[in-house]
Amino acid sequence: MIHKIKITGLRVFAHHGVFDFERQNGQDFYIDASVWIDGDGAAYNDDLAKTVHYGDLAKAIVDNVKHNPVDLIETLAQRLLDLALNFGGGIVAKAEITVHKPDAPILYEFQDVSVTVEASRGEFNIG
């Protein structure tokens, strides 16, 4: 059975952006992360070792976002996608990451700017 594990709105203060003031001052980024796994082993055996520990995934994402600033949130999103897809020693079959930048330097009123990326290993069909 396919299980989707989702973290929504993980807030990370970091220094990504094209402009010098973004790199110097930093801002909040919000990360949504979803991973799909074959969850039978975890669900039927109550075994944490057979699933993705969402606390560990959250920590890995936060640590990654805080380090190695980049210009584009597209680059950051791809980096986090690679992390999520390879998390848990290959148990993840599909991952999706959205990076939100609600304080992006736009001169007009807006609620959010985000980039979403996803990828799958193709090991089994996930809708």
Task: Describe this entry's structure for a reader.
The chain is α+β, with helices and mostly antiparallel strands and about 130 residues long. The chain has a single domain, classed as GTP cyclohydrolase I, C-terminal domain/NADPH-dependent 7-cyano-7-deazaguanine reductase, N-terminal domain (GTP Cyclohydrolase I, domain 2), CATH 3.30.1130.10. It has four helices and four strands; from the N terminus they run βαβαααββ. The chain has helices at about 20-25, 40-45, 55-65, 75-85, and strands at about 1-15, 25-40, 90-100, 115-120. Strands 1-2-3-4 form a four-stranded antiparallel β-sheet. The longest helix is centred in the middle third of the chain and has 13 residues, at about 55-65. The protein is elongated, with a radius of gyration of 16 Å. The relative contact order is 0.22.
Helix-strand blueprint:
Layout: E1 2-14, H1 20-25, E2 27-38, H2 40-45, H3 54-66, H4 73-85, E3 92-100, E4 114-120
Number of helices: 4
Ends: how far apart?
12 Å
Q: Which CATH class applies here?
A: Alpha Beta
Low-confidence stretches: none
Rg on CA atoms, Å:
16 Å
Structural class by helix and strand composition: alpha+beta
**SSE order, one letter for each helix or strand:** EHEHHHEE
How many individual domains? 1
Helix content: 25-40%
Strand percentage lies at 25-35%
Strand order of the largest sheet: 1-2-3-4
The CATH superfamily name is GTP cyclohydrolase I, C-terminal domain/NADPH-dependent 7-cyano-7-deazaguanine reductase, N-terminal domain
Record field, number of beta strands = 4
Q: What general form does the structure show?
A: elongated
**What characterizes the major β-sheet?**
4 strands, antiparallel
